[in-house]
Design brief:
Blueprint lengths: L4 E5 L3 H13 L3 E5 L2 H10 L4 E5 L7 H8 L7 E5 L4 H9 L4 E4 L4 H17 L6 E4 L2 E4 L4 E4 L2 E3 L3 H12 L7 H9 L8 H18 L4 E4 L3 E4 L3
Parallel strand pairs: 1-2, 1-3, 3-4, 4-5
Antiparallel strand pairs: 6-7, 7-8, 8-9, 10-11
Length: 227
Amino acid sequence: MERKKVILIEDEVKLARFVELELRYEGYDVTVCHDGREGLQMVTDGNYDMILLDLMLPGLTGIEICRRVRKFSNVPIIMLTAKDETMDKVAGLDSGADDYLTKPFAIEELLARMRVAFKHAHAGGTKKVILEVQGLEIDTDKRMVTVNGTVVDLTKKEYELLLYLVQNKNIVLSREQILNEVWGYSYIGETNVVDVYIRYLRSKIDEAFGIKYIHTIRGVGYYVKDE
């Protein structure tokens, strides 16, 4: 099997070296960069299977790198950062990151999240399916959402959350279920990130089009209703 190519953009030299050695031991082909602008250029010029990206970098922040990469690539991105506030996590995910890991972390957890991200990326290559609920359509091939023919601009995580809700329409999904499926693991004690993204979706879809798609069962979870 061909070795997966991973680029690690991290300015903490000792941490970068530790992660590099562990990933090489696990069979990954690893490239390391300590500067944001240089890292973005390497991603632009290279062909990587995954990006491990620090949030705070010299030259260019991880958030900005993520935004720019998402303009031309859907390569899996995992943010590595010392920040642990919910809104910082939301900012990273909203810029297009697939996952978010707070320092310090165990290498086993990083490896597990990498496996999940690769699995989700591979699943994204399945055949075209169009899902429909009351005028809302999701084209899984184009990753495009429309409501009564009008295209809705969603971030990567907003799209994945809406897709999961629609795939399980009329089924109440708990925050833990949503986190496990959309984020790939459980944010223990941090399930409010789901509430934040539900608000984003409601603003862009329910409120924008005057149609109530996403319903709440207080104390239980959320669901999309198909009448």
